[in-house]
Amino acid sequence: MKYCRFQMNGQAQYGLVEPVAGRDMILRILLIPPEESDGDVEGLRSRRIEPVALEEAELLPPVRPSKIVCVGRNYKAHAEELGHEIPAEPILFLKPNSALLAPGGMVRRPKISQRVDYEAELCIVIGKTCYHLAEDADVRPYILGYTCLNDVTARDLQKKDGQWTRAKSFDTFCPVGPVVVDGIDPWAGVGVETRVNGTVRQSGNTRDFLFPVDRVMRHTAHVMTLFPGDLIATGTPEGVGPVVAGDVMEVSVEGVGTLRNSVVDE
Description:
mainly beta; five-stranded mixed sheet; 10% helix; single chain
């Protein structure tokens, strides 16, 4: 299963994406949002449309979460590159929905920050409501799929504040997309990469998570109820660095695709 969210005739629609002659094409629109599928997107009613190439569609963020949960320092090498201690349990923080940005959108560097960094992440999309999951519970039935997320960060403000809310929360600081897929296995290992202006800056693998997806979900669900459509960004590998106006960031997750956004000054 692979789906996107896009503008068609002035309205936001969810589209099922399938390969046709080597190109990803939107062939059908979903008549019910995926987050209302109870985890079964394939079973939702849909309607065939004139095919639209994914690369030519006016894409929107493929999700409408009630909250965006992020995991900090989930790769040992990333914690070390920032001079931080290795955490004993998942570190959680939130990004506001107002930070969401569509594929192709412009990330704005705020005037009050002198350093804005990219952070490539595999992102979990929740499919079923969950709270206080048992330690032996299988988390897979609660996952609708996975997507790419760029946890854009004002690094100087993060260091200045000592907590992360302001640095992570500017409008445009949460690009997500381009699609949601369900056919990958983070436990087995999924590559996560960032390129800036075509040069690889980050290259990691979910095999190197300090806390695997099941641990992250249980830890989070013992704090807050996770609702369908909610996001959990699972952490970034080493290699974070700054971007400036004119740069193009590409976040790729193996089996998902590439999230591309450019940078402008506020």
